[in-house]
Amino acid sequence: MRIRIPQVLCLSGLLAVGLAQQGQPPESPAPRAQDGGVREVLESIVIPNIPHAPFTATLATEWVKYAADGATITLVNERRIARGETGRVYQERWYLVPKNGKVKSTMNWIQIADPKRLTLYNCSTEEHVCDLLVFNPRTDISSISPHKGVSGPLPNGDGSVLWEDLGSRAIAGIDTVGTRQTTIVNSGAMGNDQPLTYVSEYWHSEALGMNLLSTRSSPFFGKQTFTITELSVGEPDPKLFELPDGFKVNDQRKNPPISH
């Protein structure tokens, strides 16, 4: 069975924020490379670049991780997102930081995607540089309409999956429809000595073509909750889709030169 953990935000950013806040003496030696370890990343709510559904909102993230001894570690951030009438998408990226901790979250990226010009700007707020890339608009219909699969056994007797309708509820003043997927992986299917349970819950807005609340829990990465708050329907401030002042642009759409 293939368990996918997509990539968006790197947890290593948390370490960078911590070091920046604490400071490091000049005479301190560079950290020694060590064997092992894990690079952890986080996927957030998908914002499809569909037209005629403009909005501005705040996206709150909470990631609860479970330690083997029963302790929990909770990381959080909030970031601004927006979509224009033509399908342009603006997103900020902020570091994940400990909940109720001393380290304050800071912005590290701004992303501006334009489906008509086929451009994507990834702007580093730390380096004041924007990388210009070719943007491939999403055509996956599952990002526009709520997805519901079929309950039943997994292939090769590896486990089972259950899909449930959760009804409807209003989130940030918008009607949504809820769906829950529960997957149970049998013992031995992937080296596990006990059954593993994964639960995903989505509250989808047909009007906006996206989820307004999404939760995922897994024995591997804990529980992730993504919540849309402070939602305002209508055309965003056009300045959001302008490049930040003073940022250098690196056009990476061209083919790199051939080395001799």
Average the pLDDT over all residues and give the rounded result: 84
Instruction: Supply the CATH superfamily name.
Output: Lipoprotein localisation LolA/LolB/LppX
Task: Give helix % range.
Answer: under 10%
Structural class of the helices, strands and pairings? mainly beta
Search tags:
260 residues; mainly beta; disordered N terminus; outer membrane lipoprotein receptor (LolB), chain A; 4% helix; single chain; two-stranded antiparallel ribbon; 14-stranded mixed sheet; 1 helix; globular
Structure, explained:
The protein is globular. Mean pLDDT is 84; it is low at 1-29. The chain contains one helix and 16 strands. The protein starts with 8 loop residues before the first strand and ends in a 9-residue tail after the last strand. By secondary structure, it is mostly beta strands. 4% of the residues lie in helices and 45% in strands. The protein has a single domain, classed as Clam (outer membrane lipoprotein receptor (LolB), chain A), CATH 2.50.20. The chain has one helix at 12-22; strands at residues 9-10, 41-42, 55-66, 72-83, 89-94, 97-98, 107-114, 119-124, 129-134, 152-153, 159-171, 174-185, 196-205, 210-218, 222-233, 248-251. Strands 3, 4, 5, 6, 7, 8, 9, 10, 11, 12, 13, 14, 15 and 16 form a 14-stranded mixed β-sheet that branches. A two-stranded antiparallel ribbon has the order 1-2.
Give the topology.
Blueprint: E1 9-10, H1 12-22, E2 41-42, E3 55-66, E4 72-83, E5 89-94, E6 97-98, E7 107-114, E8 119-124, E9 129-134, E10 152-153, E11 159-171, E12 174-185, E13 196-205, E14 210-218, E15 222-233, E16 248-251
Parallel strand pairs: 9-16
Antiparallel strand pairs: 1-2, 3-4, 3-15, 4-5, 4-6, 5-7, 7-8, 8-9, 10-11, 11-12, 12-13, 13-14, 14-15
